[in-house]
Structures are given as structure tokens and as C-alpha cells.
Amino acid sequence: MNPGGGFGLALGFGLTPTAVIQVTNLSSAVTSEQMRTLFSFVGEIEELRLYPPDNTPLAFSSKVCYVKFRDPSSVGVAQHLTNTVFIDRALIVVPCAEDD
């Protein structure tokens, strides 16, 4: 048991809820509109950024997406999409710090 009375690791730093997820292992063919549509079913999206952006002329083998939800509880729901095959790859969804 940790000092707070619950089970888990005492990590030595505060764990604050985040409203941001990082989605990796994305197909190079994915667009920001497709990501917005997928994650809008999870919760209301405040901001979405896809890297590299849709209009990049260079070819990349994969992309990464950051989604900021209005409600931090949507992060836990979004994590359930990990290993879901989207286009041709299994998504990896993890919480991410909200630093800009």
C-alpha cells in the first residue's frame, strides 16, 4: 500500500490527469480527418495534430497523432483502441503530458 492508502507505486511525482493522447504506428496514408472521425466517437476533441501534416510533399513510412480531449476521462476510453487495426496497422494509444 502506498502512503495515499491505495495500491500502486509511489513514483515520487504527482500524477495529474491528462487530456492528451499520443497515437503512434499510424499508416502513412492516414489523414487528420480520419483521425478526427475515429476519436470523435471517444469524446469531444479540443485539438488534433497529425505529424507530418497532410500536405507534406515528402513520403514517410508512418505518422504520429496527438489528440487533446475536452474531458480527461476520454483518455482512458481512447486507450482501449490500442491494437485496433486502422487502415493497415495496429494503433498504439498512450497518455501524453500536456506540455505544448
UniProtKB/TrEMBL annotation:
* Molecular function terms, GO-annotated: RNA binding
Checking Gene3D superfamilies in the record gives: 3.30.70.330
Q: Name one GO cellular component term.
A: nucleoplasm
What InterPro entries does its record include? Nucleotide-bd_a/b_plait_sf, RBD_domain_sf, RRM_dom
Domain named RRM is located at 20-94
- Protein name per Swiss-Prot or TrEMBL: Splicing regulatory glutamic acid and lysine rich protein 1
Source species: Lynx canadensis (Canada lynx)
Organism lineage: Eukaryota, Metazoa, Chordata, Craniata, Vertebrata
